[in-house]
Structure formats: C-alpha cells, structure tokens
C-alpha cells in the first residue's frame, strides 16, 4: 500500500533547486559586475542588429578602420540572445538571462556530481564551490554559454566512458550550438581527447580494462561532433579564427584574460581550493584514480594556470572528480552519515520542482517593472568610473564629427552608446583587428614616436581616451589639439 505524499512536500525544494536559487541570487546581486568590460556592449548591439536585419553579421559594420572586412561570426547565437534580452528589458534582461544560464549550469553540474555517488550535501557543496570558482569570469559575454555547454558535454562523456549509451545525436547537437555560440567549443574536443587518451592508457596500464564499446562510441562522438562544427555561417573559417588568435603572442599578451590567475585576489580562492584538493587527490589516490580522471585534473589545471579564462573550465571538470574522492574519504564518518541520511530522506520526498521557474519568473517580473535589485539600488549599468559614461552623455548633447580615436577597452561600450552615428577606431576584438592596427592603437595611447602619423593615416579628427594615459597628458598641452570635455575618467580632444 502506497503512502500519500503530504501536501507540504510539494512546497519543499530539492537541493538541486536550492543550488539553482543560490547561484541565481548571487548573479542578480552582482549583476553590474557582468559589465566590467566593454565587450558586452558590442555583443548586445550586434545581436540587436542581427535581429533587426534578420541576417548574420559576416563583415564589420562597427568600425571605420575595418568596415566591410570579413568577420567570422563565431558568437552570433549568443549575441542574438543578448540582443533579444536587451530589446525586451534593457540591461536588466541581460542580467536575467546570464543569471538563468549560470543557475542552470550548476544545477546540471550538481546532477552530474550526484551520479558519481557523493551524498546530496557533498554534491551541492562542490557544485556551489565550482560556481564560486567560475565567478572570476562572470561577464555578459558568449563564454557564459560555454560554461553550460562544457558541463553538458563533459557530463555525457563521463557517462559514455562508464558504459552508458548516450544517444550520439546529443553530442552533435551540443557541438553544433556551441560552435555557433562561442569559439571555446574547442574545449569540448580537448576534453574528448582526454577521454580518448585515458581509454588507451587505461587499456595499456590499468588493472581494470575499459570496454571496447566505449572506445567505439568515443570515436563516433568525435567524428560526428567535428562535422557538426562546420555547420556555421562561414564553414571552415571558424576553425581558422578560433585557433589563429592564440598563436599571436603579442595579441594574447595584451589580453588580460589570457594572463595567469592572480591568487592574491579573494575571488580566485575557490578555484585555488579546487586546485589544492586536486593535487591532494593525485598525490594520495594516484593508484585508485583512473587515467582519464588524472588527465582531466592535470590537463585543465595546467590550462587554468596558464591563462585565467580556462580556470572556470577546470573548476567544472574537477568538481565531480574531487567530490567523489571526498565522499570516499568521508564514508566512514558516523555523524556525517546521520546528517546525510536525514537530508536524503528529505530529498527523496521533496516535490517542489517549480521553485526555480517561480523564482526566475518572480525576479524577471520585478526587473521588468523597473525594480532595482542590486545592493546599491543604482540599477545595472556600466560603471562610470570604468567607462566614459558621462563623456558619452556629453557627446549625445554635443555630437562630434569625423573619425574618432578611442581606447580599445572602451570600444564595445561606445558601440553600444554611439553606433551607428559614430563608428569606433577599434574595440575588444583584437583577433579581428589584427596586430598591425592594435600596435598603432598602442602607439597613440602611449604617445610613442610616430603617433601623429597614425592620426594622419586614419584622418582622426577627435579622441576619447582615459585621463591617465600618456596621450591624454600630452593632449592637454599640445597646441594642435583642443580639450572640449574632461572628467575624472575621460577626456575628449579635438584637432584645431
């Protein structure tokens, strides 16, 4: 005879729902942090433009230096999503979309961790630790989608390696979406390579031999997914763009997110904790770990230490592995077992499946109504101490004509505020603008010898630059330039 579920159980959220709500709440609280660089402005404007024209941007329309040049639209799906969110609710919509994406990502990760047999509390703890570890790269940019795709991809590869027959089309669809959303789809093939190499190493050196059926499925997954990446607006050029940028040492060194992580900053400490736990596992449980786990931990740790943008992917790859080993180490603790048994009973009977949807709709309704949910109650915005917000306000009332020179980190913001009336000299797409133009930009900003030749070459009539750059200090005293606006962040100078 079945016992009836008490009505109160339908109001009780599961731990997975609590993970969703916790991550969602955190993103809503730090929403303005999502606009800490200028690129979100360009992505939003590109998305709005594609929606308005019903076509994918395959050439540059935002700069006067590269207008009409072929552009690889490797982020077009994400840009359309951000553009649609902005059209519906402004920056509030962009924050809401990002919050939902991140909350779904770590809810999925919680489920993947739970499949490795950790108890729900440990699974939730490591899902939230991974979320905190990725927060150092929370920006309203296409790589947010990569966190979700990477989680879906890695979790399914793990299940295939364990003998589960995941339909092959799921991998192809994930890769198709990923390749049209963000250039880091290559991370999926890096992880696939770790599983493939792990199979051969385990087969050669492991005490327990892997199933040959798993190898066959891995090969099919790799082949079908590789073919899926060519289903994009520019075909093979997608690979050329995605791989070409990382081979240019100058451009990579100029990009902050390609630097190694700074573990002196508190925001990096959750990732540091996962790194330490991974090292502990590799040193203490080397013989118990399979080869694939070791390759994933070592490989993604190395990539994360090499440049900070890979650290979130390390966190997602490491969390299920580390959680499983922590569970094994804690399995003999009687007190923990009692606590977990209580949580397991609650989890088993909880039926409040609508909590995530309810919370997202409630918060979305509040944001649509104009309620300010950030702690400062200033609303989500580009920070005026980082971007030339007041200077652009002045420009809207006092338009300047002719070609503009701008700092590259401000390019995306200026596109968001001033395009199409004003095109930029350069923005954050350094892979598109290339080394020559980027060096010319640096030549002007640093007021290096020959900077006036660059001004003449591009017929630049006015500049919008940070007040603390050498060129700004030079323009203040240069007889050929007139300062028409100045505040604590930016100056606007015009040729006499």
**Total count of helical runs of at least 4 residues:** 21
| Unreliable runs | none
The domain count comes to 2
What gross morphology would you assign? globular
- Major sheet: size, sense and barrel closure? 4 strands, mixed
Order of strands across the main sheet: 1-2-4-3
Mean pLDDT: 91
The share of residues in extended strands comes to under 5%
Number of strands: 4
Measured between the Cα atoms of the first and last residue, the distance is: 91 Å
Alpha carbon gyration radius: 25 Å
Q: Provide the helix percentage.
A: 55-70%
Textual characterization of the structure:
- The termini are far apart.
- The protein has two domains: 339 residues, no CATH class; 107 residues, no CATH class.
- The chain has a four-stranded mixed beta sheet.
- The protein has 496 residues and is mainly α.
- Helices cover 59% and strands 5% of the residues.
- The radius of gyration is 25 Å and the shape is globular.
- It has 21 helices and four strands.
- Helix 2 packs across helix 3.
């Amino acid at each position: 005879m079945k016992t009836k579920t008490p009505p109160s159980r339908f109001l009780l959220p599961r731990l997975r729902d609590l993970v969703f709500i916790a991550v969602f709440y955190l993103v809503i609280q730090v929403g303005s942090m999502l606009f800490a660089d200028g690129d979100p402005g360009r992505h939003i404007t590109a998305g709005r433009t594609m929606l308005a024209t019903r076509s994918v941007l395959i050439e540059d329309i935002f700069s006067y230096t590269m207008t009409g040049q072929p552009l690889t639209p490797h982020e077009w799906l994400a840009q359309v999503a951000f553009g649609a969110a902005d059209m519906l609710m402004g920056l509030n919509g962009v924050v809401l979309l990002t919050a939902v994406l991140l909350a779904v990502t770590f809810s999925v990760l919680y489920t993947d961790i739970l499949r490795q047999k950790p108890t729900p509390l440990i699974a939730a703890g490591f899902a939230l630790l991974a979320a905190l570890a990725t927060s150092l790269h929370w920006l309203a940019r296409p790589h947010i989608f990569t966190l979700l795709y990477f989680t879906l991809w890695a979790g399914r590869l793990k299940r295939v390696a364990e003998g589960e027959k995941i339909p092959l089309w799921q991998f192809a669809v994930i890769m198709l979406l990923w390749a049209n959303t963000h250039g880091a789809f290559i991370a999926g093939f890096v992880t696939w390579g770790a599983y493939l190499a792990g199979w051969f190493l385990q087969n050669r050196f492991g005490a327990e031999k892997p199933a040959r059926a798993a190898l066959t499925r891995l090969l099919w997954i790799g082949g079908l997914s590789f073919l899926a990446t060519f289903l994009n607006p520019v075909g093979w050029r997608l690979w050329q763009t995605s791989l070409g940028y990382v081979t240019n040492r100058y451009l990579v060194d100029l990009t902050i997110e390609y630097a190694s992580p700074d573990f002196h900053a508190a925001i990096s400490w959750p990732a540091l904790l996962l790194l330490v736990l991974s090292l502990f596992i590799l040193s203490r449980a080397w013989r118990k770990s399979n080869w694939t786990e070791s390759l994933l931990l070592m490989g993604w740790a190395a990539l994360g230490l090499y440049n900070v943008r890979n650290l979130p992917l390390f966190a997602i790859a490491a969390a299920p592995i580390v959680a499983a080993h922590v569970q094994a180490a804690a399995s003999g603790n009687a007190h923990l077992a009692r606590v977990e048994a209580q949580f397991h009973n609650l989890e088993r009977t909880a039926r409040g499946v609508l909590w995530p949807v309810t919370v997202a709709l409630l918060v979305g309704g509040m944001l649509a109504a104009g309620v300010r949910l950030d702690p400062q109650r200033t609303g989500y915005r580009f920070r005026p101490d980082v971007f030339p917000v007041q200077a652009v306000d002045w420009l809207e009332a006092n338009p300047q004509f002719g070609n503009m020179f701008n700092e590259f980190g401000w390019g995306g913001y200026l596109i968001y505020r001033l395009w199409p009336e004003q095109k930029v000299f350069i923005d954050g797409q350094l892979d598109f603008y290339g080394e020559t133009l980027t060096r010319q930009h640096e030549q002007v900003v640093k007021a290096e010898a020959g900077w006036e030749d660059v001004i003449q070459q591009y017929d630049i009539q006015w500049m919008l630059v940070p007040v603390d750059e050498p060129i700004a200090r030079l323009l203040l005293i240069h007889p050929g330039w007139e300062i028409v606006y100045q505040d604590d962040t930016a100056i606007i100078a015009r040729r006499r």
